[in-house]
Prior knowledge:
Elements: E1 7-13, H1 17-28, E2 33-36, H2 52-64, H3 68-71, H4 76-82, E3 88-91, E4 93-98, E5 113-117, E6 126-129, H5 131-144, E7 148-150, E8 155-160, E9 166-170, E10 177-184, H6 191-195, E11 200-201, E12 210-217, H7 222-225, E13 242-247, E14 250-256, E15 261-268, H8 272-275, H9 281-291, H10 293-298, E16 303-304, E17 309-311, E18 316-318, E19 322-323, E20 326-328, H11 330-333, E21 334-335, H12 343-358, H13 365-392, H14 396-418, H15 436-449, H16 456-463, E22 479-480, H17 484-489, H18 498-508
Parallel strand pairs: 1-2, 1-10, 2-7, 4-13, 5-22, 10-20
Antiparallel strand pairs: 3-6, 4-5, 8-9, 9-10, 11-18, 12-15, 12-16, 12-17, 13-14, 14-15, 18-21, 19-20
Helix pairs in contact: 1-5, 1-12, 2-12, 12-13, 13-14, 13-15, 14-16, 15-16
Amino acid sequence: xxxxxxxxxxxxxxxxxxxxxxxxxxxxxxxxxxxxxxxxxxxxxxxxxxxxxxxxxxxxxxxxxxxxxxxxxxxxxxxxxxxxxxxxxxxxxxxxxxxxxxxxxxxxxxxxxxxxxxxxxxxxxxxxxxxxxxxxxxxxxxxxxxxxxxxxxxxxxxxxxxxxxxxxxxxxxxxxxxxxxxxxxxxxxxxxxxxxxxxxxxxxxxxxxxxxxxxxxxxxxxxxxxxxxxxxxxxxxxxxxxxxxxxxxxxxxxxxxxxxxxxxxxxxxxxxxxxxxxxxxxxxxxxxxxxxxxxxxxxxxxxxxxxxxxxxxxxxxxxxxxxxxxxxxxxxxxxxxxxxxxxxxxxxxxxxxxxxxxxxxxxxxxxxxxxxxxxxxxxxxxxxxxxxxxxxxxxxxxxxxxxxxxxxxxxxxxxxxxxxxxxxxxxxxxxxxxxxxxxxxxxxxxxxxxxxxxxxxxxxxxxxxxxxxxxxxxxxxxxxxxxxxxxxxxxxxxxxxxxxxxxxxxxxxxx
Length: 511
């Protein structure tokens, strides 16, 4: 609970993982911080799949802001060793399967699949964060650090005086809270957007997608219902991944946790529910599952353990992200279809940048503008890529080609940051790189306009200077394992020696 003292440097509204991380980072640098939460932990939250870059950013935040316990949450092995009480899921990579209505998915049909490994072994693998446990753990850590926290605290009034000081009133409390700066970490269409009555709009690169999701128990694995999904040569067990099922109506995710639950949901093209003439989430779910025999088999004995949530607008952004005395984290400023698990990295980059500007004083106007412009640039680049992938889903060869833009940018950025050269990989998806960024956007826009067009040669040309993952290697299967020799082969291209790369791999645990 927030004590009688009610004047703070920064108030963070929203105690999901992002808001709590930011509050802890500022607290560890001597800022007086209050963390306010409308609800109470543990609580259900969607957005659960991490990536190598997101885990690296968590490590960087842990080191830079003196939060050493967070480092053990950046790899599956150390998570299990130190935090086995916090549920998570093993994520070895990204699995994509293209389905046809009425037809069983076949493991031997290589034309309709893509497997991309993100780690060489389980020990340093990524995770699916079971958010009720993960977010609750972070809040407990914040309280142990002495950070001021109050839950079930509904803000009823917020005003700024001419000097910029905020006065915040909480329902049921007589004394207001004052602060010099407010951060919105409340999630999509959050508190500050409502407070300032900011227009919330869609993203021109993306259609107005819907979502339908829940947590389930008893969901069968693909490799359990069909042993062919364990065939020789696979880069990892296909279910130990972010599993994507591409369907005519959009796509479905499956993220398995080690507590027996699975996060599963659909991202749907506009008006799917209207076309099948139902307003019932359960009827829509049953209709979609019933059209695809493999999905129906997986869900045959599954049971929803949460309500079935139907969100009618997934993708959005607001035009203003920061102003005098306030800022939004990226997760409050915009939301983009989670097809490639981009949300954690986008948000953690925002946490890191905003923490750096707030550790001594409220940001200057140039700092606020720079934060807003970079956040908007990254949201725009992500939306362009997801929009292009959404457009090309019916043309799966084109879809697979376009994913290489993501995997090239992400693996290069991770490598450069681990080598201590983050300036060579500016912006999420290299969106601020003078060579890669404009070409990347150009291809994505062209694919949105003409999803049947073959961009494979152009994509290979663009990613060539950034290819550290063997993305140009001829292959007989649409499978991309982690092969360390691919990284060594890129040494000259990225200006590193084999010895430097070996040292980097030892440090991150890959050797």
